[in-house]
Q: What sequence folds into this?
């Protein structure tokens, strides 16, 4: 299983589309949004966490693209003849998604610290990284569910729509204060909004709110169920 995990991580990090879309794009958007006109240091910190969360969501969803490609080339059939159990295959994919999320998070945080002059205590940097890493698991499961259920072409489109929709509605790009009241009310129930709150709470020197943990856990169960059902369907049809 470790060999399989190593293979999948190398394959993902060699993907030019992943490097540009999952790592470079969030950094460029962060630097653009925070260097247009006069911006307060608090916005540069909040935007840093939001864009790190956006990059993490995109990288987590990207795991589903590899799953869909595996179906198309018959890789899932090859995995069936190995000693690996279906649970190990899914776990390997989930671990791959978790590992490849880290570069996206780290790149935005480095840009915040070195370029925008964001200053936090060492424990805050470490806690934000760890929380965003762990909090990305629901999105990895969503990506896996899309990959097992859809074709390679439709998986890419579905993941892009999910990423953009979750980012915009969840307030990862712009402050929720700019949203109309009805959209603000909706945003607090979205996984992306609560995901980013894990990091912004720590940046403000507070522990993550219980509400954020509860909402994220609910989405974890929902996306996990979706991934399991999609995998079972794929194993019956591939």
A:
């Amino acid at each position: 299983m470790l060999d399989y995990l190593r293979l999948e991580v190398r394959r993902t990090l060699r993907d030019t589309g992943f490097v540009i879309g999952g790592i470079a794009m969030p950094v460029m958007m962060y630097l653009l949004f925070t260097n247009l006109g006069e911006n307060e240091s608090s916005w540069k910190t909040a935007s840093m966490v939001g864009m790190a969360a956006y990059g993490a969501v995109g990288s987590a969803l990207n795991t589903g693209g590899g799953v869909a490609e595996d179906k198309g080339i018959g890789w899932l059939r090859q995995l069936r003849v190995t000693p690996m159990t279906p649970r190990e295959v899914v776990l390997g994919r989930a671990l791959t998604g978790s590992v490849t999320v880290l570069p996206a998070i780290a790149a935005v945080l480095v840009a915040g610290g070195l370029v925008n002059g964001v200053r936090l205590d060492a424990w805050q940097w470490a806690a934000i990284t760890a929380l965003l890493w762990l909090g990305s698991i629901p999105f990895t499961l969503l990506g896996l569910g899309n990959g097992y259920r859809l074709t390679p072409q439709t998986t890419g489109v579905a993941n892009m729509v999910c990423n953009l929709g979750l980012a915009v509605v969840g307030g990862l790009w712009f402050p929720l204060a700019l949203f109309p009241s009805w959209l603000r009310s909706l945003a607090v129930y979205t996984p992306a909004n609560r995901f980013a709150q894990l990091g912004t709470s720590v940046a403000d020197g507070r522990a993550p709110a219980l509400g954020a943990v509860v909402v994220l856990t609910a989405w974890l169960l929902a996306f996990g169920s979706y991934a399991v059902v999609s995998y079972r369907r794929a194993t019956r049809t591939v």
Remarks:
- Residues 2-237 form one domain.
- The first helix runs from residue 2 to 13.
- DSSP finds eleven helices and no strands in the chain.
- The chain has one domain: 2-237.
